């Protein structure tokens, strides 16, 4: 048996299907701009489906970041947690939803479902072939990353901004220390 992972932040999606790749874009941004706290694994899970089973089963807490179909406008933030995640992945995720549903069903059937599971995502506008995110999703990416950081902090894992970044490359993004009110832009 592998070592337990206290928190797995798992980005899912298909980069060649526009907004379907937003989970990957979010975790890549998170990893590039923030230091992962001890005990946290940030992973690009792509569309690997069941091959991610050992990663999910060995985690105490999982934050999945993905495109989520919902009856909200494209670019809307969506949060689903614990017992509501399984029905959501069966009905509301992007085209790779079968893989995600199988992944979580596999962990559940084997009795190894993480005790804490949260799904954060954005409603996609376009999931056709292409590499670019739609503007309404791209503009919400910093907010999505911020909410993942806030979720992790609520679980006891605080991401800190990287200090090794070129200051000229820092754009306006959410400040992870603005946890109380959920607002706070940082340059």
Could you characterize what this model shows?
- The protein has helices at residues 22-33, 53-57, 85-91, 97-109, 135-138, 141-154, and strands spanning 7-12, 34-35, 40-46, 61-67, 77-81, 116-122, 160-161, 173-174, 185-186.
- With 187 residues, the chain is α/β, with parallel strands linked by helices.
- The protein has a single domain (7-186), classed as Rossmann fold, CATH 3.40.50.1450.
- The strands form three sheets. It has a five-stranded mixed β-sheet, with helices on one face. Strands 2-7 form a two-stranded antiparallel sheet. The chain has a two-stranded antiparallel sheet with strand order 8-9.
- Helix 1 (22-33) crosses helix 6 (141-154) and helix 3 (85-91) packs antiparallel against helix 4.
- The longest helix is centred in the last third of the chain and has 14 residues, at 141-154.
- The radius of gyration is 16 Å and the shape is globular.
- The N and C termini lie far apart (43 Å).
- Residues 168-187 have low confidence and may be disordered.
Task: List the SSEs and their pairings.
Layout: E1 7-12, H1 22-33, E2 34-35, E3 40-46, H2 53-57, E4 61-67, E5 77-81, H3 85-91, H4 97-109, E6 116-122, H5 135-138, H6 141-154, E7 160-161, E8 173-174, E9 185-186
Parallel strand pairs: 1-3, 1-4, 4-6
Antiparallel strand pairs: 2-7, 5-6, 8-9
Helix pairs in contact: 1-6, 3-4
């Amino acid at each position: 048996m592998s070592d337990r992972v206290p928190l797995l932040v798992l980005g899912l999606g298909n980069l060649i299907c526009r907004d379907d790749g937003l989970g990957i874009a979010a975790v890549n941004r998170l990893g590039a701009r923030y230091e992962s706290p001890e005990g946290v694994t940030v992973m690009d899970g792509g569309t690997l489906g069941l091959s991610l089973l050992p990663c999910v089963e060995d985690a105490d807490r999982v934050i999945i970041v993905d495109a989520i179909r919902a009856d909200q406008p494209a670019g809307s933030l969506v949060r689903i947690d614990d017992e509501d995640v399984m029905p959501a992945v069966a009905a509301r995720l992007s085209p790779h939803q079968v893989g995600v549903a199988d992944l979580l069903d596999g962990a559940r059937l084997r009795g190894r479902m993480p005790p804490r599971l949260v799904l954060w995502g954005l409603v996609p506008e376009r999931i056709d072939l292409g590499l670019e995110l739609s503007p309404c999703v791209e503009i919400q990416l910093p907010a999505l990353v911020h909410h993942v950081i806030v979720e992790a902090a609520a679980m006891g894992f605080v991401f800190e901004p990287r200090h090794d970044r070129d200051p000229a490359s820092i754009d306006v993004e959410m400040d992870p220390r603005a946890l109380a009110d959920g607002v706070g832009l940082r340059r």
